[in-house]
Amino acid sequence: MIRAVIVDVDDTLCLTEAASFELENDVLAALGRPPMSREVHLATWGETLLDAMPRRSPGVDLDRFAAVFPQWHQRYLADGRLDIIPPENLETLDRLVLDGRTVLLLTSRTEPEVRHLLEPDHVLAGRVTGAYHQGNTRFRKPDPRAFDELLAETGLRPGECVYVGDSPGDALAAGGAGIPFIACLQSGVRRLADFDQRYVTAAVGTFPEILPAIENL
Questions:
Q1: Choices 3.90.960.10, 3.40.50.1000, 1.10.630.10, 2.60.120.890: CATH for 4-15+83-215
Q2: Is residue 164's pLDDT more than 90?
Q3: Is residue 149 within 8 Å of residue 135, measured between CB atoms?
């Protein structure tokens, strides 16, 4: 029985690639650097931000980028340009909770990038039980050990969980940890053919479609 649904954030719970592309280019402009192309951003999407930036902007000063990024990130959040969770996705989380399932987040974001999602007045409050990110995990996807802290702290067994994500790295991490994986293709950034099919338990076109997919596991 599936007791817990673990959800990725970017381009799974909310569609963020396009907004992140604009945000990162605004930061590069503030540093006096030329913009990256959408193609290189898409090619590196799913990697952690500071790991990806040397390819997105070769020669970028990562320390300066890391220092300036939080200001722009907060500006985008305040302007409602980032991390907008659609009502139908919130309704899906509500249904999972009503069905007695625990909802957890597992993301490659840093702690400052996820902190606002955990505020007591955020729409996720009461829907999401906990979040695992770079600030409280030792390993990052696609390393299967990215789930280590989550499994240890919750006492859940891999077979009692399902992970919902949008990237091949998500599938590799889940598969390596023995956790069933649902590929959510709503963003259009990736196709099912991009995934190692050995690690894909089911694929859905929209986030709400995970409900029947989980029932069929």
A1: 3.40.50.1000
A2: yes
A3: no
pLDDT greater than 90 at residue 48: no
Give the model's pLDDT for residue 99.
97
User: pLDDT-based confidence at 46, cuts 50/70/90?
Assistant: confident
Which CATH number applies to 17-78: 3.30.70, 1.10.150, 2.60.40, 3.30.1050? 1.10.150
- Determine the average pLDDT of the residues in 74-93: 96
